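re: that chain from earlier
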Amino acid sequence: MSGDPRTIPETEAGAHRSKPEARDPAGTPAPPPGAARGDAPRPRAADFLALTKPGITRMVLLTSGVGFFLGSGDVIDARLLLHALIGIALIASGSNGLNQLVERDRDARMHRTRDRPLPAGRLTPRQAAWFAGVASLLGTAYLAIFVNVTTALVVAITLLSYVFVYTPLKHRTTFNTLVGGVPGALPIVAGWTAAGAPLDARALTLFAVLYFWQIPHFLALAYIYREDYLRGGFVMLGREDPEGRSTGRQAALYALALLPVALLPSLAGVTGTFYFFGALAAGVAFLAVAMPMAVAPTTRAARRVFFGSVTHLPVLLVLMVADRTFY
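^ sequence. v structure.
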């Protein structure tokens, strides 16, 4: 969902040759999947941690925590919040691990992912399967026992849609981005229900904000790493749109759609006028960042959209919390 914004080479020497060893863009034999890279292997604990995709897990916990805060009454139950975050962290870690398990062969072909523990051979598929499976099951049971069944179901649906729907679609159709937005938007709903709030229209507005935010974020990322995704066999929009015109237009259109969607929590009574006008200003600023990619799609423009998106969401979340705290 997010990645290291390094420049990806645009050509790949030897990519279609019938030689026994694959070569990277510089012509150097690429290490085979399963071969460790680097001067020395990292500690096993670090590899299991990498399996959880810590950056994504942190974002899941952040949005879940905001959802819990918004779904709470006048008093925040800190103990219940802690239980919710523990369970959600376990399931998020498990789902990320299962995703890497399924995609390990494709990850081995991509520059930005080939040093992950599975393609690099620092963990075996069996180890990863046990780790991810136990974390997922333990997290689901933990939420059902210490939080509530509704939250356990919401987070379980997040895992199932991410691993068994979105992940297979990534190498079949460009619509995978629209599907992938669903598991990415559910954590804030899980936090909402963990606080005891019902699954109603208010929860739907929070889901909508996270869903529409993800589309330009993903489109920009897919365009930046279009050559790498091609190596991995992923069917991203950039594969069928090498010049980026459709990708740029869609990123701008979804940024435009996000602008009114981000105002819905205020209209539904989740937040007030402080958030409303703050989100309006933030939405206009993000749209201004996205428009150049629609006019002249370049990697530089896509990077601006990507970094604009990773700034935009925290701003919205801070506005939500500040609105409920001070207004």
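The longest helix spans residues 299-326.
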